[in-house]
User: What shape does this take?
Amino acid sequence: SRGDVLKFLRDRRSSEIGVSVALGSSDNQDWPLFINTSEGPVAVAARPGTAIIFRGRDLSHWRTKLLQEYFSVVNLCYVRRDGEYANCKYDFREKLGLPSIDISENY
Assistant: This one.
C-alpha cells in the first residue's frame, strides 16, 4: 500500500536465495529493489511481470517508500540442496504443510 517500505535487511538462513516476483501495480510502474553489492547499492527495476533473483542471505536489500496506491509482490525463498544452509529447508520442518514452528532461535 502507498507509503510501505521494505526496511534494510539480510534474509534469514532459510532464505539463502530470494526470488521477488512483481505481479502488478496500480499504475504499472516499477518499485525498485535496492541491493547492496561489492560495488555499492544497485537499484533493480521491479516492473510487473518481472522477477529478481538474488542472494538474500548475503546481500542487504531494501525498498524505499511506495508512492503508488499498491504494488503486488510474491517473495519465494530457497536454499541450495548441498549448500551451507541445506538443513534450513522448509524452515526446519520435515516437509511443507506442517504446522509452523518458532524459528526465531534459528536466525
The two ends are 28 Å apart (CA to CA).
